[in-house]
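in:
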């Protein structure tokens, strides 16, 4: 089922898909940043058809493939007219100059009241459906690296599982540059740290060095990330059926091996 809301950034579509009776509920977000159109292409042209073809792996999905359509469109136009990716930097925020990835009412937020309609929609969808996993697609800033960023323990477990498949770096969203301080206003902090909902911010990766056409660049990104995404969609879900996950949870916080299989000689929680 397709629905939408109207915003100053254009119509925000959201798709309610898959098995409504599934206990595994996924939320997929893309296109918060107008200068990151790869994320929208990934959601619309690769992930959604892939999930449909696989009957949603029996799970429930809500997908918002383009949270900043006005600016994403401007960036795609610029790419079509052969302007550099750097040209799109001016389209990063939404029409009202809001960073859609810094708009969440986290505890330490500078702007604790919600501003963008699409942020309100995401939060209300979570309040209605109580998602088990959130994926938020971006490309990366100056480093142009591909990274799987996590915000809580389950996110770490899943991001490390993805890393084992394709070697894309998995790391805590709050890294040394932030000196351990939770990022203000991000969906990662809001959902992952403050509500303990596993969320993985997928930084798709390295456009700086891409010489090939944009569609080939996106195909390349899909080829890289698809096996790790398949792992999330098909192979693993933090639930009672996943023994590795249950072991992981059982061992959380255990530093030493005290004979219960956790710690240095067992499943490490660190
Ligand atoms: Zn971004």
């Amino acid at each position: 089922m397709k629905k939408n809301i109207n915003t100053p950034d254009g119509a925000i579509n959201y798709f309610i898909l898959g098995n409504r009776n599934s206990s595994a509920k996924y939320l997929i977000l893309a296109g918060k940043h107008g200068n990151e159109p790869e994320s929208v292409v990934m959601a619309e042209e690769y992930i959604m058809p892939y999930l449909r073809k696989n009957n949603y792996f029996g799970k429930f999905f809500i997908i918002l493939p383009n949270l900043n359509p006005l600016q994403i469109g401007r960036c795609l136009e610029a790419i079509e007219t052969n302007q550099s990716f750097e040209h799109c930097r001016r389209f990063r925020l939404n029409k009202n100059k809001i960073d859609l990835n810094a708009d969440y009412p986290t505890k330490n937020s500078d702007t604790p009241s919600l501003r963008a309609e699409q942020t309100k929609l995401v939060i209300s969808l979570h309040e209605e459906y109580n998602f088990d996993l959130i994926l938020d697609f971006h490309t990366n800033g100056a480093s142009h690296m591909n990274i799987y960023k996590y915000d809580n323990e389950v996110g770490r477990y899943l991001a490390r599982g993805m890393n084992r498949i394709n070697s894309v770096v998995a790391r805590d969203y709050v890294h040394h540059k932030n000196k351990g301080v939770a990022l203000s206003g991000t969906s990662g902090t809001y959902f992952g740290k403050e509500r303990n909902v596993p969320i993985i911010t997928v930084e798709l990766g390295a456009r700086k060095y891409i010489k090939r056409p944009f569609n080939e660049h996106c195909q390349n990104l899909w080829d890289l990330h698809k096996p790790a995404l398949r792992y999330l969609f098909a192979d693993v879900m933090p639930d009672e059926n996943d023994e590795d996950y249950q072991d992981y949870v059982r061992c959380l916080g255990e530093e030493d091996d005290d004979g219960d299989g956790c710690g240095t000689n067992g499943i490490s929680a660190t």
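note: Helices lie at 37-53, 69-80, 117-129, 153-166, 187-193, 214-235, 243-251.
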